[in-house]
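Appendix B. One record, verbatim.
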Amino acid sequence: MNFFSLLKIKGFPVAEAKKLFSGIPDGEEFIKWQKEKRWEIFNFHKQNNSYYNTLVPDNPKKWEDIPIINKETLRLQSNKYKYDYTRKLYTRNTSGSTGNPFTYTLDYFSHTLTWLLIENRYGSMGVSLNDYQARMFGMPLSWRERTLENIKDRLANRYRFNVLDLSDRALEKWIKTFNAKKFQYIYGYSFPIISFSNFLKLRGVTLKNICPTLKTVIVTAEMCSKDDEQNIREAFGVPVANEYGASEIGIIGFGNTNNWKISNELLYVEIVDNNDNLLPDGEVGRVICTPLFNRGTPFIRYAVGDLASIETVNGQRTITNLVGRQEELAILPSGKKAPGDTVFYYVFKEFSGVFKYIQEYRVIQKSLYSFEIQMVTSTLPKKTEQNYLKRTIENYLEKGLNIEIKIVDSIERTRLGKFRRFISEVN
């Protein structure tokens, strides 16, 4: 089924969003249009969201006078939305690199615009959302969530690979799958794609030769260096695109490492210093985003938690430097390798259904057999809940592991408020 026909069936206002997206102006008219849209979305939340109105009690005359907010600010808004309009909203959540779950809302119209932007960017790589996708994402273990993901993958013309096992045996199976299926593009976390490219090069295999229909690779989530991109390009035999974004914001930039075209059509991006002052092009600072159309959570001048710089060339704003994170492997006694951050994201997503008081967590692999789980929580997990967590970890990794649970007051952070959710001390 056509992707946008499926969205329409699910109640997304596709025709309305296409009309707006196709009518976005260029050049000087675009600058004026974007300025109008950012003030429109600010005024909407100021007038219709009682919680956001408490954050900005005055009426700022300059955009820069609007206070910058972050996840911690917005976590306090639970059940404080007072909207006076009829757009449909739906709820999503993300833990991000802080390890602290964050629930937010998007409206159907703005999310449809996001899909149109994605289709536009993918089109620049010669593929469409309707093409057959090799999807390298995680998969939940629970039957209900796994079934829902499988249904979504089938409807969206996607085949999902298990990125929680990156052992040589598993990657050999990946090669056989690419040999048997006519994938048109690969989309997924940078880390498993980089691992697969390294494996292909060791085997002397170019993926395009065994899967001739393959057109491009699009990496997302973790950092992917220029060297990583080159390795992927050589091992896969197709062009590589790098998608930079945040779950709650959408695609912030698209292109290649240190050359991400900003999603100006739907997003206003600023770079500021530690005192919230705007920085000129070329200087590295905090990334501040304002989605121009989302009437759900008020992401107005929202700090996503990254450092970057921007350059403007021929009127196009581009992210030219980005400071982010790379994922570490969990290496197990059996020889199995798994992306630690991804694995424990799914572990704690399941565990939160049993124990609802986790504020933050961190996992440290001390040895091949030993993992230390640090949790900030207002309520101690019961013995049965701790046993459930240990069983869930073994289900995702393997049995026979030593799992030590530690309750801590806080977890050390970087100056951006981030911390590494998974750390390996295994050489």
